[in-house]
Amino acid sequence: MKKFALQDHELVPTHIILISEEKEKVLEEYGVGAAQLPKIHISDPVIKDMEEVVVGDIIKIVRESPTAKQSIFYRLVID
Amino acid sequence: MSLSHKDLLKRIDELPLLQNMKDALHDDLAEVEVTDEEFEAIARQVVEDFDRAQVVPCEAVGVVAAQSIGEPGTQMTMRTFHYAGVAEINVTLGLPRLIEIVDARKIPSTPTMTVRLDGEYARDRDLAREVAWSIESINILHLGSIATDLAEMNVLIELNEEVMAQRKISVEEVAERLSDVTKLAVGRPDDYTLTLTPKEPSYRDLLQLVEKIKNISLKGVEGIKRVVIRKEGDEYVLYTVGSVLKEVIEFEGVDPARTKTNNITEIAEVLGIEAARNSIINEANDTLREQGLTVDVRHIMLVADMMTCDGEIKQIGRHGISGEKVSVLARAAFEVTVSHILDAAIRGDVDYLKGVTENVIVGQPIKLGTGHVQLVAKR
What we know:
The complex is a heterodimer. Chain A contains 2 helices and 4 strands; from the N terminus they run βαβαββ.
């Protein structure tokens, strides 16, 4: 059986885990608490594919946008 | 002195603009030489124009999106069972499909997959057909005929040698699979004939056994009822009736990165919530475009974002995205007014008048547009 990385699929944008300094910066920039961010489940297939993601982490998602070419989105990892 | 290319790149990147605007700005400015002051002036103008082009704060974007998708929806055909491009494959389109998407149905009424193939497989028709046959679920009727022998009280299966070779399945495999599922001994009077005898010699059991055997999937992916090959540009693409993404992407010859299904829930399970969001946008856009309607993709993106922001797909139902409204008055204004108010009174609910409907009811300015702005005195 061949294994392919989910993030290679054309429907799946790039998911990047943020380190804590970056986390602070993002929350400050948007002026929100972590709980107010959109969510992603820890059981999400892409998250399961990534290593060392724990509940409470923030995932940066670099989307290909039809209107802005590239747009950045953040999701909080929840249970 | 004009800016060096490296400086230009850095300065553009720091501007609060969208990526495609930065690219356009860079492309234009790379051709001409600009000085520091000139760049400042250009950048200021562009940023200013961009600010003006954006949605203003407190704009009711949700309502605008709802109307922008809803109005073209009224022009859509109510019932379209179309053969979307692919001959013989029936795909739900038009309004029923759009409703299906926003309702976040677990299984669409016509699940179908677009299977793209890897390298050689995509170019060679014979290889593509091989993949198609390995995916397609086959039952006994594909391989031969089935009959009942009332004198012997058994089921007689005659297999076609040619088809068996083509589909790469042996008589032994068929016999084994049949006995596994039916828990009956399979007789083999000659090379391409199989017999099964029900435990009780009853006519009803015999007929039931025939039906059961017809439903057994002998090879391929169970759930993929048919596979159609179609040439698109210079590659062969498979379209399926039925959708089992998880299994199909693991097949030899299938390009997992470009294989899709129209079942959004399945995408969320196999590829994650972000892929599901993209899929909602694509499916909704394709459905509208197929009907000759153009809705700005931003409205659809907003809908897709709202549907996926909790990490799972939420439906947009009659009560909006969030399901139940918090406000008693807002709920009472919609349906069964008395029971809502009565229930709220019994429970001692409080209405904080945060939403639009309840403020309209009590005659206060609603918190939208200029109504949301408040003045704060500066000390």
